[in-house]
């Protein structure tokens, strides 16, 4: 009775595909112990351990060429450094996935809130928010693609950021993004009048802002500080023909 196993038995044992084993052979990482009279590749315990080594290194994120180099020429110090690098890369990936989890949770929560509050005026208690001024719009308050591209800087995740259009007077809006540091504008904590709505065209925004001001005037609400229009473009995942906005302004005391 033979002691070696075929390539299909090896694949089943190691929970990989035959194609993967053949690929490792093509790259010079693994060779059968011998080929029998029927041209079957046969593998012994040595090849099982060798394949286990290859799969471990691949799991650590090493490309095939680096796996080959490590198996033929790495000493203990190089292996230790390789594992340390893999640990650091794994930690960075964990942080990335945690941030992604927070963002997905934010989108789902924003969508739930938007569905509950759409086309409804509400008073919200908000914590202070730090904003970084990005750039001012033209006098027509219309954002153009070239203007956006010309002002873009490193670290701006435009597709997941809340874009704040801040109207501090009669002039054009200033585009801002939330900032953990380097803030140049503070939206203080307090009660804010809020109105969430979808819009298919930018010309709807001015009409909505006028309605917002009229609503506050009719109810003798004393609004203070800048009027803020928040664009939540990621919510358009749920309705791709419209952008989603929230109007905010703090309610002051007379």
Topology of this protein?
Elements: E1 5-6, H1 7-14, H2 18-26, E2 34-35, E3 41-43, H3 45-59, H4 64-73, H5 76-117, E4 121-126, E5 129-136, H6 145-151, E6 163-167, E7 174-178, E8 185-187, E9 190-199, H7 203-218, E10 223-231, E11 243-251
Antiparallel strand pairs: 1-3, 2-3, 4-9, 5-7, 5-8, 6-7, 6-10, 9-11, 10-11
GO molecular function: DNA binding; DNA-binding transcription factor activity
Domain HTH merR-type: 4-73
Pfam family, one: MerR_1
Strand arrangement across the biggest beta sheet: 4-9-11-10-6-7-5-8
> What is the percent of helical residues?
40-55%
How many H/I helices? 7
Distance between the termini: 96 Å
**Proportion of beta-strand residues:** 15-25%
CATH homologous superfamily placement of the largest domain: Regulatory factor, effector binding domain
Strand-pairing-aware structural class:
alpha+beta
Which fold does the CATH topology of the largest domain refer to?
Multidrug-efflux Transporter 1 Regulator Bmrr, Chain A
- SSE string: EHHEEHHHEEHEEEEHEE
Net shape:
elongated
> What's the architecture of the largest domain in CATH terms?
Alpha-Beta Barrel
Q: What's the β-strand tally?
A: 11
Question: What is the makeup of the main sheet?
Answer: 8 strands, antiparallel
C-alpha Rg (nearest Å): 30 Å
Q: Which spans have pLDDT < 50 for at least 5 consecutive residues?
A: none
Mean pLDDT: 87
How many independent structural domains?
3
Identify the CATH class of the largest domain.
Alpha Beta
Oligomer state of the chains in this structure: single chain
